Amino acid sequence: MQAADWVQQMAVYKTFDNGFEYIDIVNKSGRAKIAVQGAHLFHCERVGEQPLLWVSETSFFEPGKAIRGGVPICWPWFGKHQTDSSLPQHGFVRTSVWTVVDIQETDEHTTELILQLKSSARSLQLWPYIFELQLHVTVAEKLTIALTTKNCDENTFTITSALHSYFTVSDIDNVYIEGLDKTRYFDSLTKESIIQKGNTHIGGEVDRIYQNVRYPLTIHDQKRNVHIDAHGSSSAVIWNPWKEKCARMGDMKDDAYTTMLCIETANALDDARTLLPGDKHTVTAILS
Ligand code: BG6
Question: Which of 115, 212, 213, 260 has the smallest C-beta neighbourhood within 10 Å, fewest atoms?
Answer without folding.
Answer: 212
